[in-house]
Each structure stands twice: as C-alpha cells, then as structure tokens.
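Re-run with default settings, no changes from the original entry. Doing this only to confirm the output is reproducible before filing.
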Amino acid sequence: MQMQRMTEMKLTSRPGGAVNVSFEPPEGGKEQAAGEFRPTVLMERIEAHLANPNAPCHHEELLSGVTGNKGSKSKALVLLVAEGKVEQFKIGQARAYRLVKVERSSHGPSDSRGTPPSALVTDHL
C-alpha cells in the first residue's frame, strides 16, 4: 500500500511561547485530492461524538467510541483536524480532541474564540 499525504501542518512561533497551527492541502492542492475517498459518514460520527458535553476526549477513546473501520476513522479524524473542524491538543502525553465551534459572521467563519480555523492558536502542543 502506498502512503499518501493528506495534509501539511505548518507551525509558526508566536510571542509568549504560543504556536500558530495551520493545516493546508499537500502540493497539488485540493484539485489533486478531489478524487480521493472521503469518509464523510465517519467524519459526521466523530463530530457527533465530540459534540457530547464530556468532550474533549482522548484519541483511543474517540476511535473506540465511534463505529466503523479503524483506518477510515483515523483518516476521517485527520481530515477533520486539517479542515479546522476538530482541534487536536495534548493532555499530558496523550493526544486529545475537541470540536471547534464555528460561528458565522459577516467576516467569515471563526471558532468560538474568533480565530479563523486555518489559523488556530494552540498553546497545548
């Protein structure tokens, strides 16, 4: 099986130790990835699971709490993070995830902190 890049993560240092994290399509852009499989049903299941008030949740807890093929669930999760719909961060040494609440305004979408999804500031990495 040939590995394919789904996204490129760009980290930019900010004053005070904060880090800007953005996810971008790999070279070739969205046009190249347009014909690739997107596990949209699993993406919806992951979003629904993270909408639970007990979120954020750890990586393994999330994958075991959603039905479906483990590899496809992992791909769905990567896509959701890359699209800015889910935020990944660390709790101790464990990876955890939470749903990014997107609010629409006249200036375009932003998360609950007013940050566009492509420029989320994450101090937890």
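The longest helix spans residues 70-82. The longest strand covers residues 8-13.
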